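Input.
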Amino acid sequence: MTDLPTATARRGPADPVKALMHRHRELCERAVDPLEIAAGLEAHGVTDRTAARFRHRDVFSLAEELYARVPRDTQTPSAVEELARPSAGWARWALLPGVVSALAVTGVRLTSGGIRPTVGALGAVAFAVALTLTLRRGPLRAGRGARPLGRVCAGWLLAYAVGGDGLLGDALRGGPDGLWALDPAAATGLAFAVAPALWCAHLFSVQARGKLASSRGLAEFSGRSRPLLLATAVLFLGGLTVCLAAAQLVYGSVQLASCVALGLLLWLARLLAAHGFSAAATKVLAAAAGAELLALASVFAGRLPGLALLGRPVDAVVAAWGPGAVPAVVCGAAALALLARAAAVLARASAHCDQ
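Output.
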């Protein structure tokens, strides 16, 4: 009997939950369970303290009432079912960057003289276009708020993977005196790794939405999503390593450690951007690109009178472990930082709820 006035007040004209229900009606109508509503409310800044103003102990309790009060079309397929069906568009385009890269590398190897740089430049432009078209329509498409600086930094990191080690090695020997050696295996292996990157991102999205639907609360979902992220990252590393190993068999040696670190870094950055966390991805990519640029600049600056000390750290690292150690350390550290960030933010239910 004591609860009756409260229930009456909640359904009355001044019912605060009713106002919230109208404000988020679209979210409530398409939700397949209360947790999806809780994720959407969380994304819109509703906290447990906010829920207390609506006479609920937490966001999930508030979401349960909204789910119960809003009618929905029970025949609408769930978001998990829709995600589980991969789009023929992005699935068909997944291998395009690898194919374009292989054709470009073949064109460069079959030409000579002054036409070779032109073929290489055209191949780089074609690869950039193919990669852009592929990422625009797949599970790694960047969400709202994506920053151009991130694309520029990712482009620099890829360019360094192809030609940075050769330039650094020539610079330490007093060059370069002309064109330096490029790494076709790194270019082709990383390009073909776009396919496992897309499929692993799709798998993560499907599984995360499945856990979102089956979890009984936000805390339970967070505990289940972190192992999923780590398992998906390991799966992608396996696919990336296979692509690089295949490229190594075709084109010769490849800096495996640095390319694996770079591939993981770029995949995590794009995964974060696809879920609306592009700011963190851009900062880490900018830091990694800046570190590689600084390493190259320090070698050239060390040639100036009185500044020989600047180039010694990089010289010592290369002498001990080779030129590939520089990008391996830089990209490895950046990838670990992004993995920690992804484990924190992608464990939020709101990261997997359509806004």
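Residues 218-251 form the longest helix (34 residues).
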